[in-house]
Structures are given as structure tokens and as C-alpha cells.
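Step 1: inspect the first sequence and its C-alpha cells.
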Amino acid sequence: MDPISRLAEYFRDFPGIGPRQAKRFVYYLLTRNAGTLDEISRLILEIKKQVHICSRCFRFFNAQNAAVGNVCPICADKDRDQSILMVVSKDADFEAIEKAHVHHGLYFILGGTVPILEKNPEQRIRSRELMNRLSDDVSIKELVLSLSATPDGEHTADVIRSLAKDIVAERSIRVTVLGRGLSTGSELEYADSDTIKSAFNNRI
């Protein structure tokens, strides 16, 4: 396989990228000067060195801002509401919520969603880590399931409810979901700030 096709194959692995768009990425790079390509290559090599995963919420963050124990600034911020834990599927959803400035508690990144026909749902998300967080953190009083209003997102919320039912019952943790400021079928990361505010303020 020639270099153009090989690189296009890598781009096709990106979320939402089809074969035509993957090829356009390759041809775009071919029009850039050597300095730009060198900078892109350098950033790709450095991203794993400079970006870490928070040991508490599992989001990606700049390692230069790490607190003790490789904890991100939000998890280390004692001014955040420690009683509310918001669960989102991916980092892009976290960024959308933070941009809306409605949630002042903590986060947990699931790392994906569970397809409806998945036979082993616990293997598709960080379910064990979430259950450990709920068990160990006695300050949590509310669990907000902030997942996309899609079939997979709603199914994932059901999976979490099922897995956490004993912990929730024992600790009297309130479990809420975003209100329907989000239209059915919408992805959370693409929602505007006003929509997210409405969904958060009307969580049920």
C-alpha cells in the first residue's frame, strides 16, 4: 500500500471520518510546508508525554497542571461541590458542560457508551472504576448521568443504574439525568451552552 493510502487508513480510524474525508486530510498535509509537517509530527510525539489521565475522573489534562497523585485541577479543587458527581461518556462532553458554566461539582469520564445489543456492557465503559468511586467517596450525594440523548446514551444510563443500585440504595444517593432541553438523538458535545444549561437545571 502506498504512503497516501496508508495514512488515509489511519485517518479513517478517527471518529466520524469516512474514506473521502480521510483522503482530503492526506492531500491537505501534502500542500503544507516542511515546517508545518515537522510541528505536527513533534506535537504527536509529545502529546503522550505532556497529557495524562486523571487518576480520579479519568479525563485527559496537561500534566504540567497535575496535583499530587496525578489528579487534575478540577478534582483537586476543594471549592468544587464535592457532593455532586457528573458522569459523561467522553472528554468532549466534559468540555461542553464546563463551557456552559452550570455544573460546579466533580466529574467522571466513562470512556464511551454501551451499545444496546452489547453482551458485556461492563467491558465497554469504566464501570468498575465508577463503582469504586461511588463506594469510596462518602461525600457524593447526587449522581448526574449526563449522557447523550441517543439510544446508546440512554442504554448506558440504564446500565449504570443497574450496576449502582445497591450502592445508591445503601448510601441514599440521588440519581438524576439531564432534562429534555436536549432533543432526542442529539450528541451532548454538539449542544450549545443554553441547551446544556436548560438540560442541567431541569435534570430529573
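Step 2: inspect the second sequence and its C-alpha cells, then contrast the two.
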Amino acid sequence: MDCNIFFNLMDLIINLDEHLIYLINSYGLFVYAIIFLIIFCETGLVVTPFLPGDSLIFVLGALGASGQINLLLICLIIMVAAILGNMLNYQIGNFIGPKIFERDSGRFFKKEYLIRTHDFFEKHGGKTIVIARFLPIIRTFAPFVAGIGKMKYSRFTFFNLIGCVSWVLVFLAGGYLFGNVPGVRDNFTFVILAIISVSLIPAIVLSLRQKKTSATNSHK
């Protein structure tokens, strides 16, 4: 990824509240379409797992609490975007099939992310679709792997609905309840960084466990 793109992305993520307020004031209802597109792509395209998800929804909850955005409308938009994104991702995985595992990592595609998600999926089964909603990167690849593995579509849809609705409600409620607390509002950049860091912990722990297991097996 180009350095300028990386730094611009980090600025967008860290200063989400400022950027969103600016967009709302400048473009009004058009912002809802932008938010839909971000969540849809973060969820539905395996090449965009770096887009903001948890932090974006938390900020939207805070803006909804302060009346700067229609909370009910944004809740519905995010849920629909997440659900449809997962459905698209499943269909892409189903269409491409196992051949994707033979492809080398590229600029935007990281094979190790796919393998990591596949291992997680093998361990936890269908509930991975729900658990993965709360794990950055893994949530982008989980429906893709479900499609590759030919998971029954009705079963996938069931877990998809539960996972997406739960994910949106948890982070939206968190932003609504705590986003405008003085200590949180005055240190919003640190709060966003904390959300990102905490949400990455499970994925990091999983990665370390896999490395430990691989190292153990290699010495046998």
C-alpha cells in the first residue's frame, strides 16, 4: 500500500468524528450513502479489510446521541450494508472456490489472512460467522471462506443475520451511551485507537496460538 494512502487512511480512522461531522455538514443525506458503501466494502470485499468498521459505528452512535445524525436510519443502513456485504462475499467465495488458496499474496490480497480465517472456521464452525463480526480482518474473510467451503446457504444466512445485527447494536449502543461522556468526548482520538487495539487482540492471540502450534508440530 502506498505510504500516502496509508497515512490518509489512518487519519480517516483516527479522526473519524471530525471527518464525519464535516461530511454531514457538507453533504447531508449523501453521507448515509458513503457510510453504507464503507460498511458494505469492509464486509463484502476481501481486498478491503482495512476500512473502519467497529470505530465507525461507535462514532455514529455518539453522533446519533447528540442528534447530529438519524440514529434509527443509520442503524438500519449499517445492518443492511453488513448483511448484504456478507452475502456478496459468500457468493464470491462460492464462485471462486478452493483455487484461491493456490494464489500467492498480492498488494491487496494477503493469503495468510485467508488461511487464518479458514483455520478459525474449521475450529468454530457456523458460529464463526457470528464471532467473526467482532474480529477485524477475520470478519471480512469469514463469509468468503464459508462460500469456498460450500456452507449451506440457509445456515449461513441465519448466522449472518444474528452476527450483523449483534455487531451493529453493540457498537452503536456503546457510542450512544458513552461517546458523549466528557472524558470520552475530549479524548476521542485515544478512544478510537483503544477500540481498534482491543478489537485486534483476539485476532493477534489467534495468530500467536497458530504460530505456536505450527512450531510445536514442526519439532515433532
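Step 3: confirm your contrast with the notes below.
The mean pLDDT is 78. Residues 188-218 form the longest helix (31 residues).
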